[in-house]
Amino acid sequence: MAMQNIGAANSDDAFYRYKMPRMITKIEGRGNGIKTNIVNMVDIAKALARPASYTTKYFGCELGAQSKFDEKNGVSLVNGAHNTAKLAELLEAFIKKYVQCYGCRNPETEVLISKNQTINLKCAACGFISDVSMTDKLATFILRNPPEQKKSSKDKKAMRRAEKERLKEGQAADEEQKKSKKDSKKKSNGSAKDASIKAGVPKKKGNSSDEDRPSPPQSLTDVNEEEGDDDVQWQTDTSNEAALRRIKEQLSDATAEMVMLSTKETDKKIKSGKVNREMNQTTDAIATLVNEIKSNLKKGATPQQLPSIIASFSPKRHDIFPALFAALFADVGKGLSKEIEKKKKYLIALVESEGSDSQILLLGAVESFCLKTGSDAVKEIALIVKAMYDGDVLEEEHIIQWYMNGLSGDNKNHLIWKNMKPLVEWLQNAESESEED
């Protein structure tokens, strides 16, 4: 059976691991009774991890025709004669809406229905929870026919029951072991008495031996065995210096060093709480600025008005371009380079108003935006920068400077720089040729 990658965007990736069978259709019947049979719908649905009834119903909703999936025979029928190409196109739309993660576009998702009767897709790859639009007719069908829950919950319950049984058995074994120890002690004491009698050892009247003394009550014996010396009062120095000293005394040199390093890391984390709070404040400031920019753009703000609008909120300088980029392109997804061509005037206006290093700040905003958005944006980053270069937003010297800074930074091994390398080399060659001319 011929296989293809799940999702049209991954069709050229020879190493893509998520695959599904190519659709096979068959026209059946004549006249008013003509129908299209999707022969391998069960196999396709299994590859997508969705019930075949969902895909069949989706075809019927989109084509305005009656559709039916026979659970017993595994037959998927849609009224009317429909070619394979049209149905494959509809299947691709179904995959985008109800299979692929909206964050990373990975098809390994699970359908969840919330208490508010909304449909979500939980991604097993990135953990992102996508909110599915409830305007489609298929959404109502899914709410009425929810997917079967995985058996993992039952397995977990069975494991919990088995764990409880194991604990009970362990407790019973411990009790049995305690009883056996007590019985063996009694036997050993009795055998010692018999041996002393046979050997003719006289009993001392003043100081009786341990064997002659009555054994303490059973409860006291258990307490002494388990708790030890109750009369002793222990006091421990809990300061960091004392703790490190005890670590050195009790552990080997290598192990003590590891533990001390972990305590230092804990101290660093405590101190970094202040840093985290500052980062949260920065994130809130950017989010507020993004909302303000969006609202002004909806009101029809021009590129020339945008710098003064942003300046009225007195933002930090390094927050301006991340907020602008998010406000302009956060909802775009794929094809970001084409959108940049449409909205380049806003970028040019802000770059010109923010001074000499504004292009580096803009490129930094592009970098962080691609890192947050995911693999699609990272793959497209060279096209994004090229679009801004062609649109006179960026100059080659600033692009090359940003690239060289990235290669020497913390994320120097990230895929961004690998994808940017051909464009930077092209810019460097173009610059050297212009100098020669």
UniProtKB/TrEMBL annotation:
Segments for region (Disordered): 145-235
Biased composition (Acidic residues): 223-232
Domain annotation W2: ranges: 276-437
Role description: Catalyzes the hydrolysis of GTP bound to the 40S ribosomal initiation complex (40S.mRNA.Met-tRNA[F].eIF-2.GTP) with the subsequent joining of a 60S ribosomal subunit resulting in the release of eIF-2 and the guanine nucleotide. The subsequent joining of a 60S ribosomal subunit results in the formation of a functional 80S initiation complex (80S.mRNA.Met-tRNA[F]).
Name the UniProt record assigns to this protein: Eukaryotic translation initiation factor 5
Basic residues biased stretches: 179-188
GO biological process: formation of cytoplasmic translation initiation complex
InterPro entries reported for this sequence: ARM-type_fold, IF2/IF5, Transl_init_fac_IF2/IF5_dom, Transl_init_fac_IF2/IF5_N, Transl_init_fac_IF2/IF5_Zn-bd, W2_domain
Source species, domain of life: Eukaryota
Record-stated family: Belongs to the eIF-2-beta/eIF-5 family.
Composition bias type Basic and acidic residues, residue spans: 147-178
MF (Gene Ontology): eukaryotic initiation factor eIF2 binding; GDP-dissociation inhibitor activity; GTP binding; translation initiation factor activity
Regions that span the bilayer: none
A GO-annotated cellular component: cytosol
Keywords: GTP-binding, Initiation factor, Nucleotide-binding, Protein biosynthesis
